[in-house]
Amino acid sequence: MAAERLMVLYGDDSVEVHYADGARLLLSPCGSEYLYEEALPAAAHPLQPAESTRQRVPFVLSAYREQILRALDFRNTFSSRPYLPSRIISPERKRIIFSDIVEVRWPDPVSADLTRCIKNGSVKISSVDGYAHLYLSELQQEFTVEFLCKVSQPFAKSANQPSHFSPKNSNYETEDQYGKSSKNSVPEMSSKQVRIDNKNNEDGHAEGKYREATKPNNQRDRGGVPLFYTNCTSEYTWVTQRWSVSSCPEEWKYPLSLALMCHSLHTAKNVLKTCEENDRTSIGADVSTDPKTYEAVSRLPAALPVSCRAPHLHRWSFCDFFLQRNEDSEQYSYPQLIQIVWCEGVFYRFIHGRRNITEIYPGDESLLKSEGDFLGNYFVHYAIQKGIKKREEKMYSVNSLPPDVPGSQYSVSSIITAATKMLQYCYKTKLSLIHNYHLCCWKMVPETDGREMLPVLLYEKVIHGTGRLLVYSDHKVHAAFWDGISLNMVWDFSSCYKKIQVNEDVGWCKLTTPDGVQQLIQIRHPGIYERYIRTVIGWCRSLNESKETPELTTHTVTEENWCADAELEKIQRFNFLLDNSNVLEGTSAAKNNLSIRKTESGSGPEEMSEGHVLEALQNTSRIIQDIESLLASAGK
Fold it and tell me: Which regions are flagged for Basic and acidic residues bias (predicted)?
């Protein structure tokens, strides 16, 4: 089995894996399907297509089983909702539990001794019931969570149906769809990247172990599960997830605040107030250190169902950004936002939203981070000096990177350059008017077929002699100037930014010249295109200050709304065909006679309006009669 060379998690939670022998793997966003493309032989013809296999993950072929498991582990580690079918999980990774674990309660900071939770600079917070654990790294920039979850369940389950187990397919049937994988098999990430102490792992798992009945082997099913309690148990597995402190999910904010408080208490205890102040200013977390701000009970993430409700939204084309041999090439087959990249032992994380952040984990427990006004231009290198446990920070400029150090584990210049290229690719995708990267099969509403994820046009303004401005619900602004220049940027029209507008979402804008050449231009350094950029910024600011500011509200999309829109589209198509068809031969002649009568009689606009309405009604009635006669003759 060839080793992984590159692993990518895209914005829609799909996974793409490149192997050392040239093979490629594509995993659907929900994880339920995969496409494996074999490597071409060396003597293959250039036009010879590669052999590919597409199948559902629960029925994966044995030849690809290990690759699929590693790809799923990679996806589950960085995705908000994991996918873990019971068919392909080894029995050693499963736990049989007699209750449904839906939520966990964390300790009270008043009664708990938080100073005992820290060891070697890292903090461990465990839930009261032992079902979940949180580990905060010494740098306080990333945390890892481990929790028990129920394996993925089928769709057809009633709300109050008890758990059942089928020995034939090793699937439990329960309403609550919970489940994830435990031990992470992502390449080179368990020891150096996650940095969870083995002893802590043992203690954590010991807290979550449960007594299993001891029955003879002949009374156990194929998976080693005792048959006498398969009708009243549920199957669980340990899940490991990694999150940035700068973008913490809601369910982990309380334990993370406990961990941050524990670290601050430990710092104060060792009389390192200067270091404490530096830590607090450089963490950049969106989590308060006061646990009272959040709920002490966390609802655990649910696993996705075994099968997907919208398999037609799965894409089966590889993104060729990582295969571009020509660095000047601007066209990519399928643009997608990038979330996580693993390449040669280095992790790259890209956080998209109001706070855009780029993080690089080289593998030596250090971190390179770029955010805010410095995004894509400067990277701050955080590291802990060995022995003295002192926090060290360095800043690197993208335009003046340091030379490689002989014998170093990695090249700072190479990883920053690679991260900058991936960041610019994400900006090109964001600033394009292609909205397909918003589509995700497991996030869509079934009644709308994913259409609720597509942005809508909120505002349109035409300025004579200058151009046209379009504002969309996903904060995108498209400006088309009369001289052929078009410009795309991101602007937040939320009410909280009306007085102070900060373009932190995207520090670049995309400009397209009349001959089709696209360029990424920094808003702060527009160069010769300053006139266009300042004009669009002025338009957006005027919209913020005026009463016509578009409201970016979230509308509940129902099936009835889409049906009404579809009927309106049909009417518009019908009117178009009516205006551009020759079904009624006397239409044009009647219009000419009507215009001649208007000129001769000098009739007013009211008479003309009534005449047009009458004629339109007569034409519509005739066409409907023709259609009915055609349908009647066809039925005979």
Answer: 194-222
